[in-house]
Every structure is written in structure tokens, then in C-alpha cells.
Amino acid sequence: MDKAGIIFSGMRPTGRLHIGHLSVLQNWVRLQEEYRCFFGIVNWHALTTSFDEVREIPENVKLMLLDWLSAGLDPQKSALFIQSQVKEHAELHLLFSMITPLSWLERVPTYKDQIVQLGKQGKDITTYGFLGYPLLMAADILVYLADTVPVGEDQLPHIEFCRELARRFNHLYQTDVFPEPQARLAKISMLPGTDGRKMSKSYGNDIALSADPKEIQERVRSMITDPARIRKTDPGHPDVCVVYKYQSIYNEDELPSIRGFCEKGQIGCTDCKKTVWEKLEQVLAPVWERRKFYEARPEVLTDILMNGAETARKTAAKTLEAVRECMGTGGA
Ligand code: TRP
């Protein structure tokens, strides 16, 4: 079948994913039907900010692969691989660095922001590698000649950077080697954490994608509801309630009636949580099943990453041949 185009996307292996990431992954899962897909666990990117805390990276890479597979990414359809196993990313990054004006990197909005943010935590990331982060990301994408990049809105400046770089390369060497990739934003539902803040492992308010049914039930039970509601018959305020927010995402059909029952004090928080849990269970049942399958087969995981890297390398090698030719580093 002819594919609609080529996709690259990646995630930094920063630890287990949570159920908020599921909508991102489900979007990737849909895209694998239409596009030629490359999905990279970008461990070099992890080093740009965590070069001094590398101990957990290898384990996090494995956790990420399991999370991806349990969400439904299919190694028969997509190349799933570790960035550092495809050295072409690094060569392209190096070659691109020769043509990238420093000012382009310095004006990427996340650059100064992150230096300030992490500076507040006592961390100095004013390194060459961190400055070059968008360049590495552009290499990740362009090494596969990807034309479509599913990302979150926060990554848009990086995609714009990638497009400018592709244009500059093509112009400098009078070629059309590189496409100008487009970001593809998906409708992502913003799930709050169990305490109502942004869901994040570091806040301890997340529901891990790898959590088992019992654990998820406990996490739902611990969700914060309307603090003004003490008795079941007290009128509730759904708009301040985390459980209601979950209802709005996982139980849209019953939402108006749940709102009515809550506001009139006709449904208790425990019962309301129970319906959220049941809906979550429906969504997560296939995820649990796939995880069980892969967890029992560690050798399959190794194969998936090996094959993924090999597929990725084949495409990347062709791109590099063309790039070396353009930049006078090809041939014998
Ligand atoms: N920068 C992305 C993030 O932090 C991860 C990433 C690295 C990426 N390389 C990429 C995403 C290439 C899309 C394409 O989320």
C-alpha cells in the first residue's frame, strides 16, 4: 500500500509514562496505518539536561518501550528503536552544525526559558549540547526525510527551526534533499493528576500507564473531590472536582446527568469514582493485555529494538549518502 508520508516522532526516556500520555500514543497508533513510521526513544536528548544523572536512563528506555507496546504501537508496522543505536542521527547533527547560525539556536524560545527554570533548581545546563538540542531534533526528523511530525504544541518552535534548517540546506547546496516537515497536532485531553495539579510523576499525583487494575482503582479512590462537600446529600460543585474532569474525558455521554446528580446531592463521590474506574478499566483492558504479553517475552523486546534500529539505519544511511555528497564528504 502506498503510504501518505513519512513520520518521525520521539520521546525522551525520562521514566514511566502515565495515562495522560495514552492519548498521544493512541494518535501514533492510528498514524501507523497510514504512514511509514519511525519512533525513536531519544536517549541522547535525555543527556542534554541529565548528563549528570545517567544511572536510570537504560532502565527508562526499557520501560518506555514496554509503555509504547502496551499502548498498541506495532513493531510490524513501525520502526521502534533507540536513538543512540542509529549513529546517522549524530553524523547529520554534526554536519548540520556546520551550517547553523548560532543566533538561530540562541533565539529558540525554550532555550533561555529552560536555562532559567533549571537554574532555579541549581542546575547549570549552559552546555554546547543543550544549545544544540533543536539541531539534534531536526537531525532526528530529517534523517528519515520525514514530512510529518506528531508533537505537542510546546514543540512547535522546534519544528519551525527544523523547517528553516531544511530550507537553508537545500538552498546552500542547490538541492531538494530535504522536505520541510509539518507538525501534526492532535487533540490531546489534558488529564489532571489525582490532586488536581498537572499530572506528573514528580508530584506523585500520576496514574502510571503500567499500573495494574488494583493500583489504578486505588489512585482513583484517592482523587480529590469538591472539598466543600462533606455529606453525600450536600450539593456538589463539579467544576472544582478532579473526578468530574475524568468523567468529562472518559464518560462524555453520561456527563450531563452526572452533573445534575452531583449538584443536587444525589450521587456520592464514592459511586462517582466507581464509574470513572469502570470507564478507565474499559480503556485500559487492552493495554494490560498487551503489557502482559510483552512482559512475559523479554527476548522479543530485544528483537524489536534490533530490528527497529536496522530498519531505521537503512533509511538513514541513504539520506546520509545524499548529504555527504552535497557537503563534499562523500565518496572514497
Ligand atoms: N523534543 C521532544 C520532546 O521533548 C522529543 C524529541 C526529540 C522529538 N526528537 C524529536 C519529537 C523529533 C519529535 C521529533 O518532547
Describe, in plain words, how this protein is organized in 3D.
With 332 residues, the protein is mostly helical. Helix content is 54%, strand content 7%. It has a three-stranded parallel beta sheet. It has a two-stranded parallel sheet with strand order 4-5. The longest helix has 30 residues, at 298-327. The chain is elongated and about 80 Å long. Tryptophan (TRP) binds next to β1 and α8. The site of tryptophan has 13 residues, from β1 and α8.
Per CATH, the superfamily of the largest domain is HUPs
Radius of gyration: 22 Å
Each distinct ligand: tryptophan
State the helicity in percent bands. Answer: 40-55%
What's the CATH first level of the largest domain?
Answer: Alpha Beta
Silhouette: elongated
Percentage beta strand: 5-15%
In whole angstroms, the N-to-C terminal distance is 37 Å
Biggest sheet: strands side by side, in what order? 1-2-3
Please provide the count of β strands: 5
Just name the CATH architecture of the largest domain: 3-Layer(aba) Sandwich
Listing every helix as H and every strand as E from the N terminus to the C terminus, the arrangement reads EHEHHEHHHHHEHEHHHHH
